[in-house]
Amino acid sequence: MASNIDSPSDHQDIFPVTIEDEMKRSYLDYAMSVIVSRALPDVRDGLKPVHRRILYAMKESGYDWNRAYRKSARVVGDVMGQYHPHGDSAIYDAMVRMAQDFSMRLPLIDGQGNFGSMDGDPPAAMRYTEARLQRVASEALLEDIDRDTVDFQDNYDESTKEPTVLPARYPNLLVNGAGGIAVGMATNIPPHNLGEVLDGCCAYVDDPEISIDELNQIITGPDFPTGGIILGRTTIRDAYHTGRGSIVMRGRAEIQEVRKDKMAVVVTEVPYQVNKARMLEKIAEIVRDKTIDGITDIRDESDRQGVRVVIELRRDVEPEVVLNQLYRFSPLQTSFGANMLALNSGRPELLDLKSIISAFVAFREEVITRRTIYELGKARDRAHVLVGLAIAVANIDEIIRLIRAASDPVIAREQLMEKAWPARDVETLIKLIDEPGRSVDENGNYYLSEVQARAILELRLQRLTGLERDKIAGELGEIAAQIRYYLEILASREKLMGILREELVEMKTKYATPRRTEILDGVFGYDDEDLIQREEMVVTVSHGGYIKRVPLSTYRAQRRGGKGRSGMATRDEDFVSQIFVCNTHTPVLFFSSFGMVYKMKVYRLPPGTPTSRGKALINLLPLKEGETISTMMPLPEDEETWSDMYVMFATSTGGIRRNKLSDFTHVMSNGKIAMKLEDDSHLIGVRTCTEHEDIMLATARGKCIRFAVSAVRVFSGRTSTGVRGISLAEGDKVISMAIINHMDADSETRDQYMRYASAKRRSDNADEGDFDPTALETSLSQEVLDAMEADEQFILSISQDGLGKRSSSYEYRVTSRGGKGIGNLDLSRAGDRTTEVIGVFPIDQTDHIMLVTDAGKLIRCPVHDVRIAGRSTRGVKLFDVASDEKIVSVSRLADDGEEDEVESETDLTAEGENGTESLETAGDRPEQE
């Protein structure tokens, strides 16, 4: 029985291979095919194979810019049938993009019909649209392709040839950019302005040693077809130097009044590659999510004239702030990740700006050289024929006799080639042509070639006339001049580069357009605060953790003893616990009961009215369950000054700790550990200070202590409990910490100065004739008096029952840290009413103070109404506090340089639904939030 097993000879081309090796080889082949033949553009013409094939197929089919439009389906069919063996949709998509003026800075295809939109609308089917080449594609990318300027290769079925690259006359890779994803690599090159790029190429031709920075002065940055704005030049410089960079793009928008008192943000240009419709959807989403507040309507009014998106705003919002929030939270501002990867000499390479330009210039040099060689060959071929005709004309009688005597054309041709013909005047041209084996012999004779003999036999009799003989001679002269010109080009690189430069200038003259994208300097990292007007704000915090900011101008000054006005609408057991005045740009540190610190600018705090409650801190800061904000500290705006400053912590149990303020420069959004607290302690104050200041701690029972900042060492950590600042009596607690000027004077000098200052104040307040001038006499020199007066501060002390007084800082002597302190405020005359000290801090004569009660009432009064008294006195009434109320917070309002109106001491209050407030504002009180 015959065997069914095939003999080895039947499978000589089959051999075993491991699956790992086969997978590696196959995947590498696939990867290289994608990289070289699909995804990455060539640095020379800036095109991928599919784009190159589309343009070449349209050129070959005659779909030029000055011809009629042709159906896109026909173009796709030509490309797919001859050059690109892929799906028709891939070819059509690539063709569509080359026709979109919002995708290409210099469109290469002139499309007729629906070719898509910036809203992401798809183009019409290829059977409905028509296309032809743009003039720039025909004259700048495909010009001279039939002059042996580039190499050709077999197409996929070897039925025809296709170019490996187009002889581009401008750096299309930079002008139109490119994007693509290969295997393990990707490219994303931004488009540029044609005029700038060609100027950069000319600069490189003039000076090949030009630096990238010098090129960057000419090619200032990407120029996107959709316009827009680029923020900053640093990222552009990085991309040009390294090939990589993230370029921040921003749409062009402006604030316009669309109706009376109705403002809107009008967007006229969107960032490159941003889907306008999706951008509007995103804006609507962030408005719905309350990420941006103040937008009432969004309309797309774009038409054929251009983009116009109208975003209407509420009347009570700052349009600039909303615009900046749109930049931050919507695609109106985005980034372009430049990754300038392209095929250079057939290999993928990350290129910088100069490398791209140098590769293009080298390519153009090669193209012009090959074109010149081709033209030289054509000219020599024509000259070769003309030499034969010129010799025939010069020897016309002998030529005619030879032809008449020949029996047939073949013999005539052979006899013409065999005979030696006198070269005569044609000898110079023959030497110029310089054909191998076709020179004049030593006797001045020339032998005709077969081509020349055929041309003579085909010579028409009319060419033998005198006029025609002159034309042959004239053409010979022109050809000779052309040959000399081509030889000069090939012999001189300088002349060749001059031609290259001239062609670049010609391209700029024909096709360059003004820059569309604006580049702004020094605005990278733009923040909301840069658009927010500087304004003094009263920040109010309630015991229940509600915070708000109200413009300081809302509160009008009253004289001491007034009834006040409502400062916050309180509910249940909530009451106002703290206020401070600062600028909208002031950074504020929030110290929590858990020893954490959070950071926020004042303008980010919720705005409110004098009677509104505000917003809960737990909704602003990432507070944990049970965590509350115990202290807030405004900081200097300039962080460069923080390095020379310190931050002092004080706890209710008398502890104190000093850290560098720079320890709190970088506070993340989720907070930072600030201080470790004991179980029965909480932070009562955090203040900035320097080495040349003193600390004053005051207790609820009228004690205080003053010692130098330098007495507290600088702690390097943020988790320690610190050292003892004051020793407290049982039941007492620290209620405030103040930073005051350091005092160096001895006790005798202080006593003399205080007697002098007291007498001087009485002199200033006394009527003429009621004061004895001799009381001002003192042994201190005027220089010492002036210096002590400059350093003198007045300490304001206020108790919960509304009494307060000012005392000179010289009355508080400097002692050692950790003592029991001295008396500050006499609480013994409070009667049956239990009261404690609520605030002790330095104050200026021109300042105002703001007092808040636990019922939410608030009063603002000038400091000059508070008389200066001794350290241990009781003081005067500052706030007419009801028997069931007490002051819970007091704040210093620094002089703003403006004259405040002062209400009459007459009772100008009215009972509102949220408490007592001034009649002057009761009629137009804002609605409660």
TrEMBL record:
Keywords: ATP-binding, Cytoplasm, DNA-binding, Isomerase, Nucleotide-binding, Topoisomerase. It is found in: Cytoplasm. Its EC number is 5.6.2.2. Residues 40-537 form the Topo IIA-type catalytic domain. Residues 891-929 are annotated as: Disordered. Few gyrases are as efficient as E.coli at forming negative supercoils. Not all organisms have 2 type II topoisomerases; in organisms with a single type II topoisomerase this enzyme also has to decatenate newly replicated chromosomes. Heterotetramer, composed of two GyrA and two GyrB chains. In the heterotetramer, GyrA contains the active site tyrosine that forms a transient covalent intermediate with DNA, while GyrB binds cofactors and catalyzes ATP hydrolysis. This is DNA gyrase subunit A. It comes from Kiloniella laminariae. The gene is gyrA.
